[in-house]
Amino acid sequence: MWGSVKSLSAMETFSGFDRDVEGSAKRWKKFCESETPEKEKFPGEWKNKTSMQRLCMLRCLRPDRMLYAIRLFVGEQLGERYTIGRAVEFSKSFEETSRSTGVFFILSPGVNPILQVEDLGRKMGFTSDNGNYHPVSLGQGQEVVAEKAMDTAAKEGHWVVLENIHLVARWLPTLEKKIEECSAEAHENFRFFLTAEPALSAEYHVMPSGILQTCIKITNEPPSGMLANIHASLSEFSQDTLEMCAREVEFKKIWFSLCYFHAVVIERRKFGPMGWNRNYPFNRGDLTISVNVLYNYLEANSAVPWTDLRYLFGEIMYGGHITDSLDRRLCATYLLEYMKPEMLDNDIELALGFTAPPPADYAEYHTFIDENLPAESPYLYGMHPNAEIEFLTVTSTHLFSTVMELQPRGMSGGAGEGGQTRDERLKSIIDEILEKLPDEFNLNELSARCPVEERTPYTVVAFQECARMNRLIRLVRGALKELDLGLKGELTITQAMETLSGELFMGKVPSSWNKVAYPSTKSLSFWYADLLDRIKFLEAWSNDFNLPSVVWLGGLFNPQSFLTAIMQQTARKNEWPLDKMCLQCEVTK
């Protein structure tokens, strides 16, 4: 953080920023420790800075709050409507289609966009039962079926749906021509809908540009934030849903709690291991089926079967995804809080400062959410506010990294940091890394110094760590030397070298290095400094192979191997069975 403050203070507009932070430490500490610093006034004269300048200062002091700060900035500069992530109804997108302009759905996990097409088709009279709706799931041997469906639909004015067209890459040029032919002479009511998964990277892109250019592209990305998730949950239903049950009050109250519960379990995934121990594929189908189950049970029972409903939702509908016992207990606990008999007589509090609405019409629920849901915070999930710090920091870093990557660049173009060109900047990074990078460990010399028969479990760990470090050092040195020759024009620049140069220029640890390195979220400069510290630690350990007084567990590629070595050494010393050994950690002051 302090490095960012010093860098910002070097700019004329922020001159004296670092001195003021040092001189008024108490005021700045209070500002930094605020739960929502983006809404607080900056200390002293700094509160008079422009919105953009305040964003710069906030990024130095609290990078984890930048997502919320940017949202406030956009709302202030462009209007609140640009900060609301409500999905556009498919019927409005359909109005822009024609016989020559189809719809291309880019698939995302847990979402089936064809359900929207079928719902709209039923309202407009296009169904499979009527013979004017032709769904075709592409795969081996289905190309002929798809072509026949296209011809029939174009001639008769029907709808045709071709799903998963990415599975038939060789047939796509034929499909492109078929769309062009059908569009020219098709019936006015002819419409075509395509679905495909997005390519993992540029080299896997197989979709002809002609198909993309003739279609309206739609993707249903998962909503972000509690507000957007609750709106998305409610949007799965309509006024007809709320009116279908004879026991209207009970149905509406439990229905809303179920929508809130769905939004919580979906959005809780963003907190990583603090949210769920594993990443479960909860989806909208879980919610819609649960509401159908709720309707059936209320219609079939005179009293609300609370225990049965909680079991069905927590153990089958949502619990069917869950494999961890603690996650299952968490899910059951949420349902105990959100679905209980008291909710029928009083409006229960679903989160701190948010009470469930009374029974209302469908549109009124959306309005109630907009007007009464508190600002996004872990309190909405029943979690401590510190739970989101890591998630927000990583997301903020990724956001600014993406913004930087969008800047125009070329292998030789543009002046970069300090007036350097891109190539000059890369050359300085390469030289700096290679200059400080030590030689590989001489494993033959180490083996001669410590023969196999004399090795203890600790020594084996040291050898394994040195071998892994050699692999990483070899990869780093080889990749940088190869890139250096490419920049000099002595080697042809390959895609791998282009990727490496881009990551180095952006200050990111190259993905090819990460594959053989240890887990780390550091930027390149801090990662390299950490790498040198790890090498020094291994050098000291491998010098005489005596166990260090203090072992840097986090500095090992595989810390678990050292913990296993402790048990092995203790078992040998005391002649205890290894399978009966366990580790216990006592926390000291």
Descriptive account of the structure:
With 589 residues, the chain is mainly alpha-helical. 52% of the residues lie in helices and 5% in strands. The chain is built from 25 helices and seven strands. The protein has helices at residues 2-9, 17-23, 25-32, 51-61, 66-77, 90-94, 114-124, 143-156, 172-185, 209-213, 226-234, 239-243, 248-267, 284-300, 306-317, 325-338, 362-372, 389-405, 422-436, 443-449, 457-488, 495-505, 511-514, 524-544, 559-574; strands spanning 102-106, 133-137, 159-163, 191-196, 215-219, 349-351, 354-355. The strands form two sheets. It has a five-stranded parallel beta sheet, with helices on both faces. Strands 6-7 form a two-stranded antiparallel sheet. A hairpin with a 2-residue loop joins strand 6 and strand 7 (354-355). Helix 1 runs antiparallel to helix 4 (51-61) and helix 4 (51-61) runs antiparallel to helix 5 (66-77). The longest helix has 32 residues, at 457-488. The protein is globular. The two termini are 27 Å apart.
How far is the first residue's CA from the last residue's CA? 27 Å
Mean pLDDT: 86
Low-confidence stretches: 410-417
Q: Characterize the main sheet.
A: 5 strands, parallel
Query: What percent strand?
Result: 5-15%
The number of distinct β-strands equals: 7
Q: How large is the count of helical segments?
A: 25
Binned, the helix content reads: 40-55%
Described by its quaternary structure, the protein is single chain
The Cα radius of gyration reads 30 Å
The general outline is globular
